[in-house]
Amino acid sequence: MSVDLATVKRVAHLARIAVPEADLPKLQGELNAILGFVEQLNEVDVAGVEPMTSVTPMAMKLRADIVNDGEIADTIVANAPASEDNYFMVPKVIE
Amino acid sequence: MTDLTRLTLTEARDGLKAKTFSATEITKAHIASVEKARALNAYVLETPEHALKQAAVSDAKLAKGEGGPLEGLPLGIKDLFATQGVRTTACSKILGNFVPAYESTVSSQLWRDGAVMLGKLNNDEFAMGSSNETSAFGPVVNPWRRKGSNVGAGATGAIEGAHLVPGGSSGGSASAVAADLCLAATATDTGGSIRQPAAFTGTVGIKPTYGRCSRWGIVAFASSLDQAGPIGKTVRDCAVMLRSMAGHDPKDTTSVDMAVPDYEKAAGRSVKGMKIGIPREYRLEGLNSEIDALWQKGIDWLKAAGAEIVEISLPHTKYALPAYYIVAPAEASSNLARYDGVRYGLREQGRDIVEMYEKTRSAGFGAEVKRRIMIGTYVLSAGYYDAYYLRAQKVRTLIKRDFDQAYAAGIDAVLTPATPSAAFGIGEKGSADPVEMYLNDIFTVTVNMAGLPGIAVPAGLDSQGLPLGLQLIGRPFDEETLFSLGQVIEDAAGRFPVSERWWS
User: Fold this and answer.
1) Which of B374, B399, B429, B448 should one mutate to test binding to chain A, selecting the residue with the greatest count of A CBs within 10 A?
2) Residue B279: its pLDDT value, please?
3) Pairing state of beta strands B275-279 and B308-312?
4) What residue intervals traverse the membrane (chain A) (predicted)?
5) Torsion region of B237: left, alpha or beta (phi above 0 gives left; psi -120 to 50 gives alpha)
6) Looking at the partner chain, which of A55, A56, A79 has a beta carbon nearest the beta carbon of B99?
7) Is B370 a catalytic residue?
8) Which secondary-structure segment (H or E) carries B398?
9) Does residue A59 carry a pLDDT above 90?
10) What is the pLDDT confidence band of residue B459, given thresholds at 50, 70 and 90?
11) Which of B78, B207, B233, B429 is catalytic?
12) Which residues between 148 and 187 in chain B have a beta carbon less than 8 angstroms from any beta carbon of chain A?
């Protein structure tokens, strides 16, 4: 399978990465090179094979349902590009 | 006095215990060598004051005959490990000046055991690369040069000539260890990022079994493949490092609750009677004849040490790399969704929140990271999930089954080349086709796909005078066997220190 320019644009938007129009053809070529490379997986007979979910078979561990952290709002927003009163600030999302 | 930076980690440890020199002395020696090697670009952040403070604490402990297994030993930390109060960037512009409020579990265990931090080491952006060329801080220089190469330090101290890459993604770690800019370094390995740079620089690197080291506090790339491990000057040094790095951590549900053995005891243990598998599928058509000859040497060395050599088959080997280039980008696209310009790192302004996200991520991520996020987004998108991601995960089951069957048949470890070539020149690979660069990991990536431990040990020099490595792959959680076999190779091949410090 290979991707066309419209698909590259759609995927870039899904990935939330702005790609200048002029860069799209080069990116399309690179993505198609990778997709061409992975195409060989179609040779493999995977009938009846379970997909891997964990390389080391292990039971999911449970922990006690207790509060073990918190009251550190200042620390949490310390690296934010914009914050006010311990809130993260973003562009207006509601009209 | 002898040059303290030339010591191995274990030699330095023994010297500190014997009070031949102090932690402050060996730390100062390393700080000086780091300063003189800035042209190699191995460190992205030097923390000399922090190091000297830690060394002073170590000296006080050592004077009382106390101290942990790594007391007073100066190390470098890959910039993928969160270090509390010390900038951590994954060598990406998108993390900008991120200063973690927490310490990764692995690095915290090193400090618990007395180690000293010299600074943060360069790597490919988000560990995505095989040459350290994708770092936002620029490429790292391999301290090895081809015979007759014109690479050198110019009048200004900058590197002149077309230097070699140290491999990646842990290129800073490998280069720093090879150039004596630390006694050992932390690294991470998702598809070969510890073993390939170790092979390119004549150093030793081990990727432990998935689950052996906690991933908590390490910047995530592909969560089902990422593992931390050390790069060191010797097999024994790596054994000592791994013992401190490994261990159960309740904060990482995939970390395994198993006792960590004293790995150093395994280095030097007899390998008599061990069955070593030689997978025929690794004899690639057109494989570099020098690599092939080195592999044969490795076989002879292990045989001479009493191991039994058995030809085995791992039929799905050739599908590991293509399956990896679905699984790893898929997980990366999900993991890297968190870089949105809201909670930390870079933010570019936009008219609305979506434009802010898109501009931030466009400006913050480099070309290789963008490519992988987009491949990952595509293979996970509606209508393609089954054809790509689900199929790749099924192939992964088959790759692991190949190894399971070999081990069930009594194989103790598998011997392969570490890389298909020696270190290559900067800008030589992958500029036209990203897949050309990906092929570097052809021998290492199966190990991540199957969650197994793998060690790369330098085994010889090629005709250009560059180091080449062999890889040993073990049973799950049997790193000890790898240290025993690795020691046999090191004893037979000798060590490969960089002889001339041409950069300083």
Assistant:
1) B374
2) 98
3) parallel
4) none
5) alpha
6) A79
7) no
8) helix B391-408
9) no
10) very high
11) B78
12) none
Quick check: helix, strand or coil at residue B458? strand
Contact A1 B253 (CB under 8 A): no
- Average pLDDT over chain A reads 93
Ordered alpha helix ranges (H), B246-366? 263-266, 289-304, 320-335, 353-364
Is A88 strand, coil or helix?
strand
Note whether B283 and B249 are within 8 A (CB): no
Answer whether B371 sits within 8 Å of A15, measured CB to CB.
Answer: no
A51 interfacial to chain B (CB closer than 8 Å): yes
Q: What is the pLDDT averaged over residues B321-326? A: 97
Q: What is the pLDDT of residue B431?
A: 81
- pTM here is 0.97
Q: Where are the domains of chain A?
A: 5-43
Clarify whether B233 is annotated catalytic: no
Establish how many alpha carbons lie within 13 A of residue B336's alpha carbon, considering only the half-sphere containing its beta carbon: 35
pLDDT tens by residue, B443-457: 999 999 999 999 999
Which of 3.40.50.300, 3.40.50.1000, 3.40.1210.10, 3.90.1300.10 would CATH assign to domain B4-269+484-493?
3.90.1300.10
Q: Residues B372, B332: contact at Cβ < 8 Å? A: yes
CB contact under 8 A, B99 and A78: yes
What's residue B1's pLDDT? 58
Which percentage of chain B shows pLDDT scores above 70? 100
pLDDT digits (tens, 9 = 90+) for B270-301: 999 999 999 999 998 888 999 999 999 999 99
How confident is the model over A36-62, as a mean pLDDT?
Answer: 92
Nearest chain B Cα to A63, which residue?
A: B250
CA separation for the pair B419, B118 (Å, rounded): 29
Please tell me which of the candidates A30, A40, A76 has its beta carbon nearest to residue B322. Answer: A40
pLDDT, mean over chain B: 96
Interface touch A13/B358, C-beta < 8 Å: yes
